[in-house]
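Hi P.,

Sorry for the delay on this. The queue was packed all week, but I finally got your sequence through. Input first:
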Amino acid sequence: MGHRRTYYALLSGEHPRLALEELKAILDVEARSYRLLLTLDGLAVFEAEGLDPRVPAARGGLVRESGVLLAVTEARLGCVRRASEEAAAMLPSPGPWRVEARVYGPYAHGLGRSEVLRAALEGFEAGGALLSPRAGRALRVFVTEGVAVLGVVGGVSDTRGFLERSPGRRPFFKPGPLSPHISRAMVNLSRLGVGGVYADPFCGTGGFAIEACLLGASRVLCGDVDWVMAWGSTLNLSEYCPGGRWASAVWNAARLPLAPGSVDSIATDPPYGRSTSTRRVGYRRLVREFLKAAREAVRSGGYIVYAGPAERDPRGLALEAGLEVESYLEMYVHGSLTRGVVVARAW
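Then the structure:
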């Protein structure tokens, strides 16, 4: 895996920019180096060195699938057929393979999934690939924005696992937590690596902490000012991360009981004063105090990721705290809330 290869990643359309930023964060952790080549509706193509093609989808919350790129061509049936025939010679084995096609968006190519699939099947067969609709290994053809992308599937997202961790299925539930997909994406934005130390100062029911455990953190430290939440997060972590190295406590996020530089990554979702209370402190003051404590706890070069209502300028609070803001994303939630996500680095 030491050489440079070209890959593709299928991205969730739910929050496309967040999905792309999550992919970049995963590559920062898992690849020696990488370079984005092409970003399309629902798809990204990139070069990377030292990357297992299964990893982006296995780690991702909004990265649905990842694999090795075979070809990029025009979204025309003749081009798909020719590209498939040429790609057959690049397959890691003659087969058997199953071929699947997906077509995205109302773009000018005007192609249907069945005709794209038929063209790809004809091309791969002409190139000598052994095909079977029941084969375990898969080849994909994606058509989007007038482009056809062909690839060998490396890994797919654990849809069942995310469903089993949905808030309503946990032992302890309170309304308002983010979905496991978004929680995983937020933790990935913090660049948590296997063996890293992770903290969530506003843990709520423990959704972020669960995802950090599953990503291989050596220690997960979380807490909440509300003892009911701290207790409930313990129940949830016990369910999904039995035997893991985690701890949940009652604490004040403005005075974290963490040694300076002891944490590699922080990802959290402070209360906004809507469905969750700021205890009359107010969002901006609460985040100012949290960032001061977090900056001291995180190691130099470590990431602090957090969210807040866009109208309350969460990005400005990070700059005010002396953090380097690497990216800022906005996610529309409903008419009265657009969530701003800040990805910042402490030095």
